[in-house]
Structures are given as structure tokens and as C-alpha cells.
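Why do we care about 3D structure at all? Because function follows from shape, and shape follows, mostly, from sequence. That is the central idea of this module. The next example makes it concrete: a single protein chain, its amino acid sequence, and then its structure expressed as C-alpha cells.
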Amino acid sequence: MEEKNIRLVLAYDGSRYFGWQRQKQEPTIQGTLEAAIHRMTGRHSALIASGRTDTGVHALHQVCHFKTFSKTPPEALKKGLNALTPADILVQDVRYAPEDFHARYSAVSKTYEYRILNRPDPDVFVRDYAWHVPQDLDFTAMSACLDLLLGKHDFTSFRSSGSTNLNPVREMLRSELLRSDEHHFRFMFEADGFLRHMVRNIVGTVIEVGRRRFSFQDFTEILRARDRRRAGTMAPPHGLYLTMVAYDRAPL
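And the structure:
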């Protein structure tokens, strides 16, 4: 019997999950989907993601894969997995992948979005989906900091402890600030890879520039220092979204 490589594209609301990676006692995205796959195929299959999202982090486009000997076709897998998983996880696409496809190692870039609500009062309806920052912000200074991040840099200053990445150099392909309306804006980052908590540490530090607690020159020195202790507070997880994973030829 031939083993097949199955690729999934997911969207999920991470609010009530303890991140991607399976845990014995707490609900996770990986654990929930692996249980559903087991029910459909009769065997346990390890579900490998393009990257592990943390507790409370969301995904609009997470790519993952698993190996199976099941003869269930992709469309039936999609329908069955969506029936067996909660409404806050959506399997958007299921298809066969080449034998050597790997959701993590085959990826050439990932894109993250971080959402901010910027007004004096919070919004009870987005409290789990955007970081409420009530202070007036200097958008010109924040945008200048983001421009500085483009290209290849050592991002040690924005890497949290516990990171398993030996090489802290990453190439930032996109780094910008986009306004949705008067009170909502988004940080957008695309890179060939990200270090542990890298996006949240960058956002937290850039917001400190926006609050005028750090200057643009301070931010420049923080990047060059390669010292996490110099950077700002890490932004909370609930404003972060994985929005795209790109592979050799096109996003999957």
C-alpha cells in the first residue's frame, strides 16, 4: 500500500488554544487535528506545520502536512476533518503533495500581520484579536523603524530566550505599517524565517518608539546591539496572525 503525503491549509482562531504544539492536558491546534485525522484514517499521524504558533496566536493561512496510507480522497478528508473539529478551526484546502514536500523546510517565506486598535477606549468585540494601545503614536517614526529592518540582519535583539535557532540572521522582505481606518492599523512582516517571538518583540519595541519612549536612534542601536535586554516589551499574542506561507513557486 502506497503512503501518501497530504497537505492542508488551515485558518484558526487561537484564542482558546495553548498554541500549535500538542500537549497532554491542554487543547492545541495540532492535538485537535491529529485526533480528527486518527478518527478518519484509523492511525495516528504526526501533523507538521510550517511553524508553531504560540498560545492565543491566530492563523489565516497555516500550511501543514501528514503522511498516511488511507485511501480517503482529499475532498472527503476536508469534509470529514471540518465535521470533526470545532468551528474555530477551518480546513480550507486538502490535496496530495509530492513525497518530498515538507510544510516547514520547503517554505521560502512566511508573512505575519499584527493588528493594533489605537484609540482611548478599548473595543470589547476585538479584545482577543487586536492589541489595544490608547496613547497617541508617532507613525512617521514607527514607519522609519520598519524601513530599517528590510534586508538581512542579525535579529538577536528581538529573539526571546528558549529559541532553538542557531543562526539569528534573517532576511526581511517586507516590513511596513498599514492603516485600515482612523483607529485600526496593521504591522506586516514577510521574511525567509522568524526567530522565537521575533514579530512580537519587534512590534513591542516599535510601539515604544511610537509612544516616544524610544527614539529612532535608540531603535537603530537596539538592532545593532544584538541584545534582547535592550529592546522593548513583547507585544501580547492575540494581535498576531500568520497570513501566508510561500514555497518555491507560489504560496500554498
